[in-house]
Amino acid sequence: MIDTTGTPILAAPAAEGAKDQHMIINLGPQHPATHGVLRLVLEIDGEIIVRIYPEIGYLHTGIEKTCEAKFYQQVVPLTDRVDYLNPMANNLCYCLAVEKLLGLEIPDKAQWLRVLLAELTRLNSHLIWLGTHAMDIGALTVFLYTFREREDILRIFEGLSGQRMMTSYFRIGGLAMEPPLDFFDRVQAFIKTFPEKIDEYSNLLTGNPIFRNRLKGVGYLSPADAIALGVTGPPLRASGVDFDLRRDMPYSSYEKFQFQVPTSTDGDCWARYVVRLVEMRESVKIIQQALDGMPEGRVTADAPKIVLPDREKMKTQMEALIHHFKIVTEGFAVPAGEVYQGIESGHGQVGYYVVSDGTAKPYRVHMRYPGFTTLQALETMCKGRMLADLVAVIGSIDIVLGEIDR
Amino acid sequence: MAEALQNTLEGRTAVLEGLPEHPAIKAILAWKAEALVDAKFDRGELTLTIASEEIRSAAAAVQAAGYNFFEDMTAVDWFPSSPRFQLSYHILSHSYRERIRLRVLVEGGDPAVESITSVWPSSNFYEREVFDLFGIRFEGHPNLRRILMPDDWQGHPLRKDYPVEGYR
Asked: For the domain A63-405, what is the CATH superfamily, name and number?
């Protein structure tokens, strides 16, 4: 394979002398362990991995280019589709970025609901990770259990927004509408039983000798390497770097919640497994605090030129009708400037860089997603180890190809 | 520190007067004051514009000052203005719990800047992405190939003169 500048795919040749014994093999893009369409070109010496060249772009849809042709509000549904396991976290990050450009104040209730939903989304994402990761290792049963709970979360999302996965429930300036009447009861019922469910997964996996042996000591990443290679989220904390944007650079009133940030110094796949399990328990605590202390008030900001008016007002008040018409047909102008907003999603740090030129459409939207960077650390984690370990490592870094290729 | 400040500071002198104790500004001034071309503090975010040939050394300077984590890098095409391209590097500090933006302006003709992969290896994929989608070359990059588009693709899709739909 030759690129436009004529550089062969293996840009740096194998070590001299060893060249003849090394084999180049292809893993993916159609491989059940790659969690999507990831292609890895592997240089192996027998069964030992020498080099890994990730080839990505199979899911590239040009979302960043599409954003430039949409009104600000129309970008929200696109963000759902980037990291499709974390829809609410993506919405949140994008909305926070645009709200920072607009200088909008978001009511407390909307902020707390956003936190609640972001944590439910994290549970959703971690459940899929746990199920598929265990399945890669050969523990098929866990997948059925985690998808049972994921189904509960998706039903809550469906009741809330009308959609199971691509929720698009967030709006610039708040949320789409008040949550349905039974929403808080359903969330309460779910998180009441959820800690027992985590025990159930843990009983299936933590004592399982095959699962332990496949993960312990595999895919080691030192703290220095993790920072140099840009790893974020649970893999970073599993390598001993105690950094979580929710706690250290809080957004959307995360500073009002009490929670622990689990870390480990082992840096292997097992540490990542343990960190994520504890993170799920901490998310349950955050959701409980959000339910207990949910403030009263509106879920949208008081900004009639940005937030769509209530249907009732629209039918009775001329001004509301005009605002509705203007927002839908022309969008709303956003003051010129550039902002970057980072949040902690289930996979790691998500960042949205939004540049405005003062019109109703974003001049540039760039999305920073954790999988894109974490993939660069794959070679460091797998070098010198057996080919079979690669499957465990890919599962443990929890990548979603939709976010990598955008 | 900087978060407490809510007003906007526009221009190099205003920022230097308004934020005299900022560790990133101090580090860059101590390393090479003339490399800091422009500065802006807006919406709680600090933007430092660096002379385009100095970006690698500037990155090394802020890294030594405690901005240890490369978070994001991308480009903006200001076509048809000149200079055409803007590169935005977002650098995070785990200890200060703060983010800065290093900004570099590049002319449109044959855009090229120095790669910062020797400072942060994590910028590798990001520079490949900008090369792929904007056509900006990074000198000293170990493997500058297209990353998202097919290898035989013609053109750079995120440039403003590349249409969203229809014929190119």
From this structure: Cytochrome-c3 Hydrogenase, chain B (1.10.645.10)
